[in-house]
Amino acid sequence: xxxxxxxxxxTDRARWRAARSIADLAxxxxxxxxxxxxxxxxxxxxxxxDEETSDLVPVLALANxxxxxxxxxxxxxxxxxxxxxxxxxxxxxxGWVSCDRAGIDLVNQILVPAQTAGLIVCADSHHGLPVxxxxxxxxxxxxxxxxxxxxxxxxxxxxIHRDLFRQLQGAIxxxxxxxxxxxxxxxxxxxxxxxxxxxxxxxxxxxxxxLYVLVGPAGCGKSTLAARHFPAGSVLELDAFRALAxxxxxxxxxxxxxxxxxxxxxxxRLERDLLxxxxxxxxxxxxxxxxxxxxxxxxLPAIAVLPDTPDGECQRRNAMRPDxxxxxxxxxxxxARQAARFNAKADGFDAVLRPADLVATDHS
Length: 364
What we know:
Structural class: alpha/beta
Radius of gyration: 25 Å
Helix content: 25-40%
Order of helices and strands: HHHEEEEHEEEHHEHEHEHHEHEHHHE
Oligomer: single chain
Number of helices: 14
Mean pLDDT: 90
């Protein structure tokens, strides 16, 4: 009898196929490192990172979310191995950075502090550097250039879009190595400090009093628009209320309780004449009309905010989400279809804002 091992799930295959940039691959890699998705193209299906990587996950996830797509990493260790021989490892990480202005800036962002700390940094090296030795003999290397066949082994054609594979072929291969075997307290600290930048408080571009209702399917960028353009503390996100009620944003059975709390806080804010933003799909006209009527009851204008993201891009973003935030395809299609019937006048809106209307204008 042939034994059939479980392969990558259909959901995970769809996630990786949906990626269109190195940044997309890096975000999915961060989710895999954190255990939020089960499989990675270059690793046996349904297996997470090696045990020795567990302490490195926070800094590796940070690196990936900054655009450094990590491929291989190891801590610095020394000791007797499983085979009774003496093993030594240098702390090291290798991966790819996009070959554009942002990628070059990222390389420099890592290069300067790493070299200052005495670390070895290789960008598109012509040969690998030893990072592991056994009984004093070189065992593995990082940083050697990869052939097209090697790259295809890591990123199989059935999982990676052909245009994205071309991006990987032209990407900068970046490797950072601690020259001292066994030391593990330098490289990761340097990398974390180089990549961490506390978010600067954004200046809201919309401050006029009113009730702002975001309208659009999952994945269209509603939360991003709200966070970027409206004052902190003004956004009511239905998913957050659902998480408060059920411990997870994905539990749809908690929606009635979440809506009750959501509406109570909204009413309290409107009674105090506070600018408020509603972050939910609001795909159905009856929901939109409920909130425009409530705004008018309190003497406030109701403004619709439409992200205007193409349906295909919403589907791609949704496919890349971890399971707990992914919306079933059927529901996403229904949301898009209902949102497409949006009629500002019939729904009672006083104005409509689109992304171009939210861009701050320099009056200097």
